């Protein structure tokens, strides 16, 4: 059964009616460029072939009803009580609220019924949250006849997440989900929000991207993510910059003399990661994906040692993938758990998965969930 059929069934079971439309929002994997987005730097993610599908139907009154197959019951709200939403409903209700900040007239708008089904694993670092946000924002854009452009829709999702969900995240995930193109990554300048599609050329090179979901779950509304963001802001402030985007690799010696060791290493990660994104884009353009492995490896080392957002399970996944033939591997997403990605020659992928599962068993870790991801087109109405 397709995800659309499942969403339609969830809708029918919850609301005893047929949906009038469907919107699909993909999750994302980040090829490279981690914790650079909120520092107004560069990222290179792609939309993946795992997505949330929203089945929806406008209502004549101002009520909102939400259902999903990943949580029981029907959640009822209305357009006058959006901001205090909690649990999973904070994502769709937060998007409705945030649209009010980007041009929707929430006093005149009508309510809606919306049912969600998603096959993006939750807590796996593949942005199940952006998948829900972009499916919902496209559904509401259609129901309310707003016609907002995709960059604005991405900002709506980010605003929902920052204010209603309470996670101080950047713009990368929503941009990947909304701007993705088939077989390409989204090269995004997070300062100007200029985006361009960079062909990955994986099939022609006999390569695939393997996701290794460690099943160590993470959340960005609490803990380390916010701390890292605050340390980056402190680094920029001490260096007299408005963001770390203004700090280059050439400034690192000066930064070392001005910052304490921890903040210096956070700054060093961001500054060198920005350069690695630029180098990866240039390498993809000139030489293809077979030459980017060392950049992926260096990114992981930087996150492990300088930004300190990896965990033993992610390090083992990366090391074992490389030992089993990956051209490069790195953790992807916000860190503290979630997934690693490995750039694998197709003919080595199956053996690598077995080697990774075995290594996890030997280490006493839970068995990881492993699957190939493909770069797909971004969110769309179905
Ligand atoms: C999470 C956030 F949502 C993104 O904005 C980004 O900061 C990422 O972590 C780290 O690169 O996915």
UniProtKB/TrEMBL annotation:
EC class name: transferase
Entry keywords, A to Z: ATP-binding, Carbohydrate metabolism, Cytoplasm, Galactose metabolism, Kinase, Magnesium, Metal-binding, Nucleotide-binding, Transferase
Record GO cellular component, one term: cytosol
Membrane-crossing residue ranges in chain numbering: none
EC identifiers of the protein: 2.7.1.6
Signal peptide, first to last residue: none
GO annotation (BP), single: galactose metabolic process
GO molecular function: ATP binding; galactokinase activity; metal ion binding
Domain Galactokinase N-terminal: 10-58
Keyword Transferase set for record: yes
Domain GHMP kinase N-terminal: 92-180
Boundaries of every GHMP kinase C-terminal domain copy: 287-360
UniProt-listed InterPro entries: Galactokinase, Galactokinase_CS, GalKase_N, GHMP_kinase_C_dom, GHMP_kinase_C_sf, GHMP_kinase_N_dom, GHMP_knse_ATP-bd_CS, Mevalonate/galactokinase
Similarity annotation: Belongs to the GHMP kinase family. GalK subfamily.
Name used for this protein in its record: Galactokinase
Lineage, uppermost ranks: Bacteria, Bacillati, Actinomycetota, Actinomycetes, Propionibacteriales
